[in-house]
Amino acid sequence: MMPPEELHTPRLILRALTASDSNDLFAARGDNEVMAHWDARPDACPAETAVVTNLLLAEMRSGTSMYWAIRISSDGDFVGVCDLSEISHEESADVGFMLLRKFWGHGLGSEVVRSLLLYAKAIGLKFVTARLHSGNQRSQQLLLKSGFQIVDRLPQYEIRPGVFRDCLRFKCNLS
Question: What angle do CA 14, 142, 100 make, to 5 degrees?
């Protein structure tokens, strides 16, 4: 399932991710602070981000995930990336979002999550989940404010081979 060409919020356009978004995405994926609560290490160079972008595009083609580049409506400035992944047809998906630091604290993440929840409901999903590192207080507050509830605590969850973090699982019912 490919994402719709665009989703809109009051201040943002969420456009289906393309290979040309890779250089902009490096600004987030190459930032240690942005990646501190992500499962991957920061990308060392734009070429690494291009490889990741191609993997995300392959997931989109397979129908297991939908990824969007987030941009400011008024000027097209790149804000970040968001997704519905691990899509289970007519059942559920996992939500994810990554914003450049300069956009933190402006309520844009809440707009993104609300838009993704509306879209998930429109395509017939029953619920959406999210998994966060327990230290990611900003995203925890955003999810709770958006209607998610903590449904599980995952102590020492392996986020990548040999790297463990305490995580929380969230769920938002859409029906």
Answer: 50
pLDDT of 1 > 60? The answer is no
Q: What DSSP line would sit under 109-174, residue for residue? A: HHHHHHHHHHHHHHTT-SEEEEEEETT-HHHHHHHHHTT-EEEEEEEEEEEETTEEEEEEEEEEE-
Token pair for residue 5? Answer: 């060409």
Residue 2: per-residue pLDDT = 57
* Number of other residues whose CB lies within 10 A of the CB of residue 128: 25
**CATH class assigned to 6-173:** alpha beta
pTM over 0.70: yes
Tokens of 106: 């402006």
Does the pLDDT at position 89 exceed 60?
A: yes
